[in-house]
Amino acid sequence: MNEVQSGQSGPKRNPIRLALGGVILVGVAAILYVIASASFKPSGPADLTEFKKGTLEKLDVPSTPRPAPDTAFTSLDGKSATLADFKGRVVVMNLWATWCAPCRAEMPTLAKLQAVYATQPVTVLPISVDRDGDLNLVNEEMAANPPLKTYRDPSYKLSFALEPKAGGFPTTVIYDRQGRERARMTGPADWSSPEARGLVEKLLAEK
Question: Given phi > 0 = left and psi -120 to 50 = alpha, else beta, which region is 80?
Fold first, then answer.
């Protein structure tokens, strides 16, 4: 008797194996979907609160990045500039004055920070609010802290244009490479400290 005559059409398939195979395929597809979604999902701003320690303990990290003001300030040679001119770079803007002792005390640490990142897209931007009559004192301070180059805002326009306004001096505002405020420090800090460098490194790593 042949197979046709015996009614046997071929080997029977195990329904349990078929079910397990389907579950495995669905699982693999789900994993691949998650991986693909993560690959194409745009990364948001990095969390900078981890650097709120040491002399940066009072660092203000806004929940959402703040836009930079478009207020103009000037270089020592009188050329006009805005924060938008530094877009594409991490900017550590420091509002200071020669009559402010804490400002002068932290200035060497800002100079060290700039020196460390001299070959990277980082600009430490001291902006003096000193009046014209004290320009010689501003020059002396900068000469003592290379490679810093100061800018000026004797009318305090930039200080008032910040949102919220600068709460005193020194005030240091950190902008990312998109030109957005990501952190702010009111009062002096050690800007050559590990936490300060870590903050800059975190912003440099962002796309």
Answer: beta
Whole-number Cα distances in Å, 103 to 26, 179, 180, 190: 62, 24, 24, 11
Average pLDDT, the chain: 86
* 122-135 b/e (C-beta count within 10 Å ≥ 16 → b): bbbbbbbbbeeebe
- List b or e across 156-192, with b for residues whose CB sees 16 or more CB atoms inside 10 angstroms: eebbebbeeebeebbbbbbbbbebbbbbbbbebbbbb
Query: For 160-166, which contacts have Cβ atoms below 8 Å and span 24 or more sequence positions?
Result: 161/69, 161/71, 162/69, 163/66, 163/67, 163/69, 166/95
Alpha carbon 87 to its chain centroid, in Å, reads: 12
Taking residues 35-47, what's their average pLDDT?
A: 56
- pLDDT surpasses 70 at 79: yes
Distance CA 193, CA 169 (A): 20
Quote the longest CA-to-CA distance of the chain. Answer: 117
